[in-house]
Design brief:
single chain, alpha/beta, four-stranded mixed beta sheet, 3 helices, 4 strands, globular
Length: about 100
């Protein structure tokens, strides 16, 4: 069974994306595409409270977008990661980079 990921705007805020499900090799391209759709935004918030899993592919998409936005004066904020996702981010050494420390 393939991993599933739902990406929606939070409360009609097109710059706050809520991710539900697994962010892995199969679903990371969906996030990259969705981030490309809101790329005109100076700041994007990713709400990971309903994200049950994140792989290195998912982290790579987030980091790539964060660097791109920062190069243009914007930011990407990771918000409220689920405990398992927060633990993966901590173990990867990216907690400071993603603003979780």
């Amino acid at each position: 069974m393939a991993a599933e990921l739902d990406i929606r705007c939070a409360d009609n805020d097109e710059h706050r994306l809520v991710l539900s499900g697994e962010l892995d090799t199969h679903t990371a391209p969906m996030l990259a595409e969705r981030l490309g759709e809101v790329s005109g935004a100076a700041d994007i918030v990713l709400d990971l409270s309903a994200t049950t899993f994140i792989s290195s592919a998912g982290l790579s998409v987030i980091l790539t977008e964060q660097r791109r936005l920062e190069a243009h004066g914007g930011s990407l904020i990771v918000s409220d990661p689920a405990p398992t996702v927060a633990r993966t981010i901590e173990l990867s050494g990216l907690a400071d980079t993603l603003g979780l420390s």
